[in-house]
Amino acid sequence: MEIKIEKRIELKAPIARVWRAITDYREFGEWFRVALEAPFAPGQTTRGRTLYPGYEHVIWEGAIQRMEPERLFSFTWAHPKSFDKATYSPDYSGEPTTLVEFRLEKTPGGTLLTVTESGFENLPVDRRDEAFRRNEGGWTEQMKNIEKYVAEEP
To answer: Which has the closest alpha carbon to 95: 136, 45, 53, 144?
Structure first.
């Protein structure tokens, strides 16, 4: 059975603006709170330092899957065993991943953004619930972040 998170928000911004906010690595970093080292490109992995307070030691790493302009952006990312500073390892090789998809749809008031993270069933049972809870709350916060970002940075 597929275990996934799905969040939707209608943003009062045109699709082109929302697309730029999620696919320009510098803009993505602003609202997602990560200092990325390189642009997003399908088939490439982008890394950067997390800027979220308390997690500055964590390396963000996303393997870009698809970029269908103004429609779909997706990446996979790993779920390390620990984010605790004392036991965290930035080597994600061999760690299980989930798929994150950003889907955009035009609405009369702007853009409907749907974020889905799937594949939690592929995580080890002893990490699955914690990863799901952490990311479910994280995506709730990130939806607020992007809403504020596109409103303040037209």
So the answer is: 45
Per-residue pLDDT tens digits of the chain, which is 154 residues long: 899 999 999 999 999 999 999 999 999 999 999 999 999 999 999 999 999 999 999 999 999 999 999 999 999 999 988 888 889 998 888 899 999 999 999 999 999 999 999 999 999 999 999 999 999 999 999 999 999 999 998 8
Q: How far is CA 72 from CA 88, 101, 140, in A?
A: 31, 7, 19
Which class would CATH give 4-152? Answer: alpha beta
Tokens matching residue 63: 């393997």
Kindly give the interhelix angle for 15-23 and 125-152, rounded to the nearest 10 degrees: 130
Q: pTM of the entire structure?
A: 0.96
Give the residue extent of every domain in the chain.
4-152
Q: What is the dihedral of CA 85, 91, 96, 98, to 10 degrees?
A: 80
